[in-house]
Amino acid sequence: MQDTISIGNFTLCKVLLMDDVRYPWVILVPRVTGLTEVFQLNNKQQIQLMNESNFVAEKLKMSVQADKMNVAALGNVVSQLHIHHVARFSHDETWPAPVWGKGSAVKYGPDERATVCQQFTQLFSELLLQDDDGITL
Length: 137
Known about the structure:
Number of helices: 2
CATH superfamily: HIT-like
Number of strands: 5
CATH topology: HIT family, subunit A
Helix content: 25-40%
Order of helices and strands: EEEHEEH
Number of domains: 1
Strand order of the largest sheet: 1-2-3-5-4
């Protein structure tokens, strides 16, 4: 995805940051190719996805003190299964409407990008893998 920044990998999912300063927005992409739906994962993978998704939602909400976490798997444009985790605030640009298709993304500047990547790496360090041997679920 050209509009994301890689943060690293969890056991099941690749962790991406949406390159848009308007919203703290993380995307989890299961590292199983060819999937478009959660039900295509086996039971163990589905549980792992839920655990990783809940971890991201909780950590993100707490770290930015979001009013609401929007967690969704749409896949209308990019069909590969992926889960969006968008921290929302009652004062943000599109509140209370969905963020999709509203306004234009504002990309992180180089210095801000490095800082934000470091912050998210630290925030998710508990589950980020140190080496990537691929999934074994």
